[in-house]
């Protein structure tokens, strides 16, 4: 059980540090709205520097910092869940660690830089530019859906018998005739 909670902390701190390191590196390596000459995979997946003052997909520009309480609540909720559910699968703890690191990674950017640093661009499909924290949140969501789905299959909710006087009737007692 302690190993699973340790897993949460390693994932949480490790990916938070990775997110901030990649963001610092990209800010120093590329000019704003510049790219690394099509690297690593020209026309398909490229590194480019953009900033986002909103939330996912550039929504609510300028209002990102107003979401600080939500990011704090998400990170606190993920931490609380991991601590309170030590017997959950290791995947649930990984998902909670990723969720907390993603929420706090982007929150740090919003508070310190007043914008979120994004750098990964799937140019092939022109997907919005994203970062490590965004990836953590996405992977966390996928892991949680899979984990909870698997748990639902392993431990299905019992169905109850129909209620009413006929269902509760003793099997030896004759049933009333239908009119």
What order do the strands of the largest sheet run in, or round the barrel if closed? 1-2-3
Give the SSE order as H and E letters. HEEHHEH
Cα shape: elongated
Q: Radius of gyration from the CA trace?
A: 24 Å
Structural class: alpha+beta
What is the number of E strands? 3
Proportion of strand residues: 5-15%
- The oligomerization state is single chain
Proportion of residues in helical segments: 40-55%
Count helical runs.
4
Largest sheet: 3 strands, antiparallel
> Kindly state the mean pLDDT as a whole number?
84
Low-confidence stretches: none
What's the end-to-end separation, in Å? 62 Å
Summarize the structure.
With 179 residues, the chain is α+β, with helices and mostly antiparallel strands. 51% of the residues lie in helices and 12% in strands. The N and C termini lie far apart (62 Å).
Outline the secondary-structure elements.
Blueprint: H1 2-29, E1 35-41, E2 45-52, H2 68-84, H3 90-112, E3 116-122, H4 132-154
Structural account:
This protein has a three-stranded antiparallel beta sheet. β1 and β2 form a beta hairpin. It is elongated, with a radius of gyration of 24 Å. It is 51% helix and 12% strand. It is α+β, with helices and mostly antiparallel strands and 179 residues long. The chain has helices spanning 2-29, 68-84, 90-112, 132-154, and strands at 35-41, 45-52, 116-122. The protein is built from four helices and three strands.
Index terms:
single chain; 179 residues; alpha+beta; three-stranded antiparallel sheet; 3 strands
